[in-house]
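Summary for the steering committee. The consortium agreed at its last meeting that each partner would contribute one worked example illustrating the joint modelling workflow. Our contribution is presented below. We chose a case with several input lines so that the handling of multiple components could be demonstrated. No manual editing was applied between input and output; the record is shown as generated.
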Amino acid sequence: MKRVRGFLLVFALLLVVLVSLIVLGMLSLRKASNASSRGAVGAMQARSLARSGIADIWTKVSKDPFFPAGVGDRQVRLCYREQVDDAEGNLVGFYTVTVDRAYRLSHNVLRIESLGVAGETNQSARHRIYAELSIDGADFRFKVWQEGAPARL
Amino acid sequence: MKPRPRLWLGFTLLEGLFSMLLVLLILGALARTLSNSAKVRANRQNMDQAIEQLHIMNTIRADVMASLVVLEPSSGAEVSSLRLRMVDPKLPFLERIDTVNGSESPYDSSEQVEVRYVVRESSLIREVASANSEGERIALSRISDLRVSHQGQLLSLSLTFPYSRVEKTRTMKVEIR
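What follows is the complete predicted structure of the assembly.
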């Protein structure tokens, strides 16, 4: 007796399982690489935010050497934080600027630290820049600039 | 003679067609996933390259901004290296203004370092030479050419990155304050 056995449906189902496994494996690999790319972009954003903080304090002090107005010389350290949004109003991150004015009169130097944080969570990328701004009228410029510096102020 | 009875253990035509459809759907999805995956990989590679280029340019820019003097190139010249003199950022401020160790000035010449960018063996090297401590030498990236020109208060840099298929040239202008 000749027996004709069907195999196509079984083959198709096996193929479904095999291809699903391959696709799932590829998706998990892509997830890991996407996370790595997001981390790199976050690091660049944090760096740009930290630079924005330094540019912000530079602009403020260049306009008003006694910035912030109304604060006496006894307060040598001040800190402020600004949030940065994109054009659509989505949060990009924020920067925190710390200014040490202790050597403003004796050495004509403001010590500045700017911490850029991309995103809003504790796991977000961070970048810190330490700079020393010479506020000597004839020589108003940064004289020390250290990227990725440990906290100094 | 009676014909032998056939025992049908297979599937109907409808089942066969359905199986074929399933196979086609799965293969189509696989082709699409592979194609997207290749695109994502190419984009990610481009982005990684762009990030590396940005990182290097930001590093050079930060050094130029912190420099007290641009030693090379001199004004009006164009060369293939960059030499700067700056305060050693690793020295704490209080140590720099300590009169016991030297001058009260936080920017005394004994507290300065010389930073040099140069291309050696197709790599961009950042060298730091200091009178007080051991120098530093870091290879930043593979690079085929570095051009630096100095016009007035403006420093123009052009870096050429060699990649497997194409060379990418990036330029940057930094104001010397």
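The interface with chain B takes residues 1-9, 11-13, 15-16, 19, 22-23, 26-27, 30, 33-34, 37, 40-41, 43-44, 47, 103, 107, 109, 111, 129-132, 141-147, 149, 152 of chain A (CB under 8 Å). Residues 44 and 125 of chain A are 9 Å apart (CA to CA).
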